[in-house]
Amino acid sequence: MPASPSTARAINDRLALRLLQQEGPLTAGQLKQLTGLSRPTVADLVERLAASGLIEVVGESGEQRRGPNAKVYGIVADRAHLAALDVRTEGVSVVVSDLLGRVLAEASVPIGDGTGTGPAVEQAVTLVERAVKEAGALAAPPRGPVREWGRLHTVGIGVPGLIDPADGELRDSSGLPEWHRRLVAALQERLPDARLSVENETNLAALAEMRDGATRDRDTFVLLWLGMGIGAAVVLDGRLRRGASGGTGELGFLPVPGTAGLPSATGCEGGFHSLAGAAAIATLAAEHGVTASGAADEPHAARLVRAAVGRVAAAAEGVLDAAGRVIDGGAEGPAAEVEAAHRFLDALADRVVLGAAAVVSVLDPGCVVLAGEVGRAGGDELAARVHMRLTRMSPLPTEVRASSLGGGAVLRGALLTARARAQEELFAPGDR
Predict the structure, then answer these.
(1) Phi, psi dihedrals of residue 59, rounded to the nearest 5°
(2) Pairwise CA distance, residues 199 & 417, whole Å
(3) Three-class SS of residue 195?
(4) For residue 223, which of 400, 414, 86 has the smallest C-alpha distance?
(5) Strand runs (DSSP E) across 115-193, as ranges?
(6) Domain 5-75 class?
């Protein structure tokens, strides 16, 4: 059955808007070429989108003569504002952007372990409100017929823990501070006009890596999160898979050899978490005599891994002082520390590969990305060691890559999901 005229217009409008988002400003002629639509159809949709305040003339093409065909159209970026939050046990970070992802404001606040639930929530909400206010001051003044121009439309929130697929809410977990659960409700109360979208931090990091990072060339992969806790995100055929209860990727509970017991339904001690979680990594480093100093805002386990990678890299590059001591970004150590760093990274790779091999044997993703604070600190060095072991352990060809987005992957993923949700509504025919 052919689409009705209104449905066809909606499809064409969304196609044009997606192209303008992906390619940047375009002329009507370029839209015609990229969409395959007729010239009259493109002319109609351009007029319709401009009248609705979604696109505007942003310049003229130097390749065209002056006139209608020379006009270059772009999405009105300040049609709506978006916010992204990265909620951790130790603090919150926020970014506010326009509809095209241009950052208008960003901020973060640490929240100490001893902070009560009420004060912690208030600190986080105040941070968001301040960033939104700053972004509003930077945004262009309202234009056109749209009543809520420049308002905060959608907030994407990345959190550790499970998200209930039925209602999109953070499930109760004894491992998370209570203020995490209270924060979403408080934000909705203080920002009543904004849509809130809550997602697991590991899933958001995977979406960001697929769009802008290490897996831009792949639509099937597993992201292995190595940080304070352990988790994984599964992307198959370009789609994030959450599972029946939202628990896909709970690798911390995976039974593995080398632990003192087995995990239970109420705790992951005895599972993969006991081998590759932050506390286990710190203990492993101590056993091998690896120490580290560095920025206090980086978790201790990540600093240890980064120090070991730095010593190995410095030794490989021959960066030695007159006494034959290895220099690695300001930290020094004798050659024996290089050997200790090698042994520590090998032992860590021996542990990480157990989780990687498990997901590879079940899903055959072809690619595993090491992310989280520890995965980023290990970088290509740790990824190469895990890849070597995985090749020996599994018959399935699998690349192992390091995250390429650094500490901003969760915020980037949250911003992408916020933008997708906002555009689904703003680009819909019912809104115009």
Answers:
(1) 165, -170
(2) 9
(3) strand
(4) 400
(5) 152-159
(6) mainly alpha
Q: Give the phi and the psi of residue 193 in degrees, each rounded to 5.
A: -90, -10
pLDDT in tens, 67-92: 566 789 998 888 889 999 999 888 99
- Structure tokens, 230: 């352990």
User: How far is Cα 99 from Cα 78, in angstroms, rounded to an integer?
Assistant: 6
Cβ neighbours, 10 Å, residue 164: 14
Class of the domain covering 216-404: alpha beta
Q: SS3 letters for 231-291? A: EEEEEECCEEECCCCCCCCCHHHCECCCCCCCCECCECCCECHHHHCHHHHHHHHHHCCCC
In the chain, domain spans: 5-75, 79-205+411-431, 216-404
Name the stretches of the chain with pLDDT < 50.
Answer: 137-148, 322-324, 328-332, 430-432
135 contacts 99 by C-beta, under 8 angstroms = no
Neighbour tally for 428: CB within 10 Å: 12
Contact of 263 with 269, CB cutoff 8 Å: yes
pLDDT per residue as tens digits for the range 109-153 = 999 888 899 999 999 999 999 999 998 844 344 444 444 456 889
Nearest CA among 289, 279, 391 for reference residue 342: 289
Sheet of 230-236: strands edge to edge? 239-241, 230-236, 221-226, 367-371, 399-402
In the CATH scheme, what is the code of domain 79-205+411-431? 3.30.420.40
Looking only at the bridges linking them, the beta strands covering 195-200 and 367-371 are unpaired
pTM of the model: 0.85
Q: What is the reported pLDDT for 293?
A: 78
Topology agreement, domain 5-75 and domain 216-404: no
Identity at 386, one-letter amino acid code: V
DSSP 3-state helix, strand, coil percentages of the chain (rounded to 5)? 45, 20, 35
What would the two tokens of residue 379 be?
């970088």
